[in-house]
Amino acid sequence: MGSSSSSVVVPFLGALQASLSVLLTIAAGVLAAQTNLLSEKSSKEISKLCVRLFLPALLIVNVGSQLHLDTGIRYVPIILYALFYNLSSMLLGWAITRVFGMPEWVTPAVAFNNTTALPLLLVQSLDATGILASLDESGDVIERAKSYFLVNAMVGNSLTFALGPKLLNGQEEDAPDADEEKEDQTEEEADSELESQREEAEDANEDSSLLPNRAVRNGTRAEYEAYKHGRKYWAKLPKWAQTTLDFAYQFLNAPLIGAAIGALLGLVPALHTAFFNEQQEGGWANAWLTTAVKNVGNLFATLQVIVVGVKLSQAMLRMKKGEASGNVPWVPMVTVSVIRFVVWPAISIPLIYLLATKTSVLSNDPILWFCMMLMPTGPPAMKLTALADVNGASDEQKMSIAKFLTISYAMSPLICFAVVGSLKAAQAAVGG
After folding, report:
1. Are residues 315 and 233 in the same domain?
2. What does the pLDDT read at residue 354?
3. Where is the composition biased (Acidic residues) (predicted)?
4. Residues 353, 221: one domain?
5. What's the pLDDT tens digit per position in 201-237?
6. DSSP characters for 21-45?
């Protein structure tokens, strides 16, 4: 009995320590904001830098190094599973919102959990507590786990950008750039405005670029000429073609490009050897280029969680200033929390266990099983803060959402129950 109890308590305490380490990293972001080390504006710039530079670099290295021609098939179930649980969550959130009359932001809160920074930081902490080693003692276990979570995050981000730009992104710093269409302009007015923008861009680029002014000027001019001709071809397309291409373009974001580059480097044997093998084994680019990209990518997880702390600090300040209004919507908060911390683990853990033990769909990798069991679990993504602005919500509702997110992230240690359940299920699958 004592041995059985210990077998549960030890991983539970390890998972609790790991989740608390994530929470303390968030607290560091709160402290940085409270001591004016980071402002809300600078945190947005850091978040944009994380998503558009650090995360693609991390995907290039982690996906590329783990991907081979003989192992690439193991990522297909992750992509299909990510599509399944994200789309199912979106449908569930939509139904709950409509049937029970909950606020509109409940749909994205149910649909999209934090799939990037928090899982990556959790993996690092779980490795430090020895939990991952209990499943697999190989040296690349943490890199493999990160690559699985990153592929899942790539799918989640792509769905977010493509299916919910108006509901989720708004002016969010990690959303794709989008120029407003001005359909009422004549072609002459549009060309005149574009020419004015080109001249302003040339002046700005000459001041900021280290390249010779002539090269900067020619490059900017070529860019705007290509855009002008492309716009004319775009206008000639039928409406259905424009709609289809515009929808497809929403999937083209920096993390997806990084994952594609990583897949190319991993699946082409000559490139994989050059970028990821040891130098004596033909990896001529590993020590300098791959290492540089890896150093950049490793900045992502911690910095992004710090940014979450800065955002939560701003939320708490709004709570302080609006003490008489903005009540916490307890029913939506409990609903979202139960779905994310209870319902999805209750679905994903037995589902992945059955797939691992009763079918050959998943590769024989307990770390893969463990990661897939955890993928749908966790607090909502921070994009809800942008949703309130997009929907023209009142200040009272914005404060309610801010309080909701603050409480959700304070509850993040609840993930330790899902961690223990996933660990025990993965160990049982190995034994089975």
Report:
1. no
2. 96
3. 171-206
4. no
5. 555 555 555 556 666 667 667 777 777 777 777 777 8
6. HHHHHHHHHHHHHHTTSS-HHHHHH
Provide the domain limits for residue 215. Answer: 187-246
In a domain, 410, yes or no: yes
Cα(91)–Cα(94) distance, rounded to whole angstroms?
5
Structurally, the chain folds into a number of domains equal to 2
Residues 236 and 323 in one domain: no
Residue 364 lies in a domain: yes
pLDDT of residue 327: 65
Same domain, 306 and 367: yes
Which has more pLDDT, 267 or 228?
267
Q: Which of 18-22, 356-360, 395-399 comes out lowest in average pLDDT? A: 395-399
Residue 297 belongs to some domain of the structure: no
Q: Is residue 264 part of a domain?
A: no
pLDDT score for 71? 75
Q: What is the pLDDT of residue 173?
A: 45
From the centroid of its chain, how far is CA 139? 26
Residues 363 and 308 in one domain: yes
Output the pLDDT for position 179: 46
Residues 306 and 409 in one domain: yes
Q: Which residues, including other chains, have CB under 8 Å from residue 178's CB and lie 6 or more apart?
A: 165
For 134, which DSSP code? G
Q: Are 69 and 263 in contact (CB under 8 A)?
A: no
Same domain flag for 356 and 424 = yes
* Interval 275-297: pLDDT, tens: 999 888 888 998 899 999 999 99
Question: In sequence order, which ranges of 169-212 are alpha helices (DSSP H)?
Answer: 187-208
Report the distance separating Cα 59 and Cα 70, nearest Å.
19
130: left (phi over 0), alpha (psi -120 to 50) or beta: left
